[in-house]
Amino acid sequence: MKAQVNMKNSSARLTDRLVTILNRPGIGILIFLVVISFVMSFISPFFLTWLNWANIFNQSAFLMLLAVGMTVVLIGGGIDLSVGAIAALSGGVVGILISELGVPLPLALLCGVLAGTAMGFLNGLIITRLGIPDFVTTLATLALIRGILLVWTQGVPIIGFSSNSYMMLGGLRRLPGGLTIPEFIVTFLVIVGLLLMRYSHVSGHLRATGENPEIARLSGVNIKRIKLASYALSGFLAGVVGVLLAGRFSTVMPNMASGMEIQALAAAIIGGAALSGGRGSLIGAVLGALTLVVIQNVINLSGIPPVFETLVVGAVILIVITFTRLSEISSRQRK
Amino acid sequence: MQSLLIRLLRIEGAPISLALALAVIVFSSLNSAFLSLDNLAIIAVQSIFVMIIAIGMSFVLTSGAIDLSVGAVLGLSGGVTMFLLTMSIPTALAIIGGLMVGTAFGLLNGFLITRLGLSDFIVTLSTMGIAGGLLKILAYIRPLRGAETDSFTWLSYGEIASIPFPIVFGFLLVITCTLLLNATVFGREVQASGMSSAGATFAGIDVKNVRLIVFALSGFLAAVSGILLAARLASVQPALGTGYELQAIAAAVLGGTSLAGGRGTIIGTAMAALLLATLNTGLQIAGVDPTWYPVFVGASILGAVAFHQWSESYVEVYDLGASDVANSDISPSSSV
Question: Structural domain boundaries of chain B?
Answer without folding.
Answer: 10-24+37-316
